[in-house]
Amino acid sequence: VEFLHCDLASMKSIRRFVQQFRAKNCPLHVLVNNAGVMLVPERKTEDGFEEHFGLNYLGHFLLTNLLLETLKQSGTHSHNARIITVSSATHYVGKLHLNDLQSRCSYSPHGAYAQSKLALVLFTYRLQHLLTANGSHVTANVVDPGVVNTDLYKHVFWVVKVVKWMTAWLVFKTPEEGASTSIYAAVSPEMEGAGGCYLYNEERTKSADVAYDEELQRRLWTESCKMVGISDESSRVP
Q: Strands (DSSP E) along the chain, which ranges?
């Protein structure tokens, strides 16, 4: 195991990390986009993005795109490289505000978090479409880990913290249990060659209806490219 520092809330840190990783000339067979914050008070990343959208979504969007060429070179016909992105059931109630992705008009921690998780599902579906169109040996899937007992809940109200403490053993998954679907998506032979799936409890299931809106997927992708400063190669793909 080798550690390389990467701050998903910093575009500069992400680019530096990718540069360091590429310098090692290593193949990349599995990328798991797992980092995130939840229900944080209104604040911005060093690049000026609302933190939920900037860290949970844009950080992973940039990281994945910068590593995409390495993933494509690493995948083969019989062993596809795999991209796994961790979303949440919260995406079902999320709304994507293309005219206000930074939640400047009216900030709600719940709304901003749900929007970032919906964006990850839209991103995954669009990414798989582009990978398929290019004939790449890379698959992209999105995972719902369930309700997991982690430090993500440190920003919830104290009443919720008390309830969580009292019911964790009954309702919440352990971190190990929460990771199981991501691991399944990363290494299971059953997922070889399968992309564009929403997985929960190691099974393919249906995501929110709005996540299948291809026009919304395209518009979010184009806007995301502008925000992180990369060229939109997808413009040539219908």
A: 30-33, 81-86, 138-144, 198-200, 203-205
86 forms bridges with which residues in the sheet?
143
Single-letter residue type at 27: P
Q: Which helix (H) or strand (E) holds 228?
A: helix 214-228
Residue with tokens 């969580």: 164
Burial of 22 (0-12, 13-18, 19+ CB in 10 A): middle
Burial of residue 49 (number of CB atoms within 10 Å: 0-12, 13-18, 19+):
buried
Nearest to 112 by CA among 158, 171, 51: 51
Q: Enumerate residues 6+ apart whose C-beta is below 8 A from 141.
A: 82, 83, 84, 85, 124, 128, 185, 191, 194, 195, 196, 197, 198, 199
Identity of the amino acid at 66: L
Which residues are registered as beta bridge partners of 105?
none
Q: Is 113 a catalytic residue?
A: yes
Query: Model pTM?
Result: 0.88
Task: Tell me the pairing of strands 198-200 and 81-86.
Answer: unpaired
Q: Which of 113, 125, 184, 198 is catalytic?
A: 113
**3-state SS, residue 35:** coil
Distances (CA, A) of 143 to 57, 86, 169, 171: 14, 5, 23, 19
Contact 198, 142 (CB under 8 A): yes
pLDDT in tens, 125-162: 999 999 999 999 999 999 988 654 445 444 444 444 44
Domains of the chain: 11-236 (3.40.50.720)
